[in-house]
Amino acid sequence: MARSQKRRDVPEGATTVATNRVAHRDYEILDTLEVGMVLRGSEVKSLRESKVQLGESYAIFYQGELWLVGLRIAAYSHSGTAFAHDPDRRRKLLAHRDQIQRWSSRADRSHLAMIPLAIYFVGGRAKITLALARGKSRTDRRQDIAKRDAQRETQRAVARARRRD
């Protein structure tokens, strides 16, 4: 079976947990960065079960650190109440200090958002792909749809021409 030609937000060999499918529709992605997350044991086990919602999440800078807000990791099914975690807590993201400073200045200067594109496991460690993005307006989305439709129509015309020969 042929491999999909869709955009990949997850590197080769990674186990995908969740992806933000509407991010490419609602935002213009300017830059991406792979960062780690500080998690508790029950959160890691819930991630392995793919019990996560990242659609409404975003990253912020707070006191020189990068934090993920709005990520909901459901409670692990086999954990007791003593070891349960808060599903909606802020989670610290791990990145190099120079990357954090560069993104902080760029986001503040250009009023950009930092949104997660995907959560995945690489070598047993949970990683997240963050995107530095600018929100699309309604007209931008319509132009994207028109461009995609025009490309699809030209591909169909080329395919019809090849079949006739």
Q: What does the model show?
A:
By secondary structure, the chain is an alpha+beta fold. It has one domain (15-136): Small Protein B, Chain: A, CATH 2.40.280.10. The chain is 32% helix and 33% strand. The chain contains 4 helices and 9 strands, in the order E-H-E-H-E-E-E-E-E-H-E-E-H. It has helices spanning 23-26, 41-48, 97-110, 138-164, and strands at 15-19, 27-37, 52-53, 58-62, 65-69, 72-73, 91-94, 113-122, 125-135. Strands 1-8-9-2-7-5-4 form a 7-stranded antiparallel sheet. The protein has a two-stranded antiparallel sheet with strand order 3-6. The longest helix is centred in the C-terminal third of the chain and has 27 residues, at 138-164. It is globular and about 65 Å long. The two termini are 27 Å apart. Residues 1-5 have low confidence and may be disordered.
Blueprint of the fold:
Layout: E1 15-19, H1 23-26, E2 27-37, H2 41-48, E3 52-53, E4 58-62, E5 65-69, E6 72-73, E7 91-94, H3 97-110, E8 113-122, E9 125-135, H4 138-164
Antiparallel strand pairs: 1-8, 2-7, 2-9, 3-6, 4-5, 5-7, 8-9
